[in-house]
Design brief:
Helix content: under 10%
CATH architecture: 3-Layer(bba) Sandwich
Number of domains: 1
CATH class: Alpha Beta
Oligomer: single chain
CATH topology: YerB-like fold
Length: about 325
């Protein structure tokens, strides 16, 4: 997500956060998933990408809140995300201005996180109002989220890890996760364009005295390819398709350990499942999880672990 809107609002309250590569593979965007907690605001809210409508929205079965999406209404050519979204059966549960949602569900708040933040970063979701609408419409029902396993006891045979460095191409950013034994969580740091010479502790405007931290961090390797339409017209960059069906490799980090694992998802309306090297379900730590999605095809990030047994970058998935 853009350096100019860090720290974001509400990330610390999310059950899951997905960080993924956008068009050009040179910048990332976040998709946050909320179930357990409901912060007073979430944002800034930006436009969605193919991973949201083709993978995540169907995986979780929830409401999709967004500022909008690319469209071929003016440019012509093949359908873009807006047209593809309108064909989805979850479109009635999509919250954005194109579908008639404005205040009180989405509101403009200037100068967050700082004075002078650009206008396009000023849109925020109000979860309390969205939950109330979902209740009225009969959509606030339990979804089938079976698939992941949890246990407070760490799995055996983990590899000691104190830091992971994930350097996405281009503007990146460089994302660092440091293990903090005192809290039992992974602390988030970023090196970005606004402070290229230092690591900035990530935070949340709603919890100004706390660093952003998660119980589990997953590096999830997935096939990426260019779609058949332009997402960024100014830079002539194609939209990126991320494949989260089938199987692939991943790395789970929990309790100061890392585990080489695999992921599997067979159907659209199905959560991911994760397995150890013997093909048995592997347990996450109960709590929150941050997913760093890494391309195995175009523009893969560089990934390094500390301590590293061989001193080599591990970026081939």
């Amino acid at each position: 997500e853009s350096d100019r809107v860090r720290p974001q609002s509400g990330l610390a309250f999310a059950d899951h956060v997905w960080e993924y590569q956008m068009e050009g593979y040179a910048q990332t965007r976040f998709t946050a998933v909320f179930l357990t907690h409901s912060p007073e605001r979430v944002g800034s809210v930006r436009s969605i990408r193919l991973i949201d409508i083709n993978e995540l929205a169907e995986m979780y079965g929830g409401m999709l809140v967004t500022s909008g999406s690319s469209s071929n209404r003016l440019a012509g050519g093949p359908p873009r995300i807006n047209e593809l979204l309108r064909a989805k059966d979850f479109r009635p549960w999509t919250i954005n201005a194109d579908f008639g949602f404005d205040e009180p569900y989405l509101v403009r708040i200037p100068d967050v996180p700082r004075v002078g933040t650009p206008f396009y970063h000023s849109l925020f979701a109000v979860p309390e109002e969205i939950w109330a609408w979902a209740e009225e419409e009969g959509h606030n029902v339990r979804q089938n989220l079976d698939g992941m396993a949890f246990d407070f006891t760490p799995p055996p045979d983990g590899i000691e890890t104190t830091r992971v460095w994930i350097d996405y191409p281009g503007r990146g950013p460089e994302h660092f996760w440091d293990w903090d034994a005192d809290s039992g969580r992974w602390l988030s740091f970023t090196r970005h364009e606004l402070s290229p010479d230092e690591l900035t502790p990530d935070g949340d405007t709603l919890l100004p005295d706390e660093q952003l931290a998660f119980d589990n961090v997953v590096i999830l390797f997935a096939e990426h390819y260019n779609a058949d339409f332009i997402e960024d017209e100014a830079a002539s960059l194609f939209s990126v398709e991320t494949v989260l069906k089938g199987t692939g490799n991943a790395v789970l980090m929990r309790d100061g350990q890392r585990y080489n694992i695999t992921w599997q998802r067979d159907e659209a309306r199905q959560m991911l499942s994760f397995f150890d090297v013997n093909g048995q379900p592997i347990a996450f730590k109960p709590g929150t999880t941050w997913f760093n999605v890494a391309s195995t095809t175009f523009g893969p990030p560089t990934i390094e672990f500390t301590p590293s047994p061989d001193g080599e970058a591990d970026n081939d998935g």
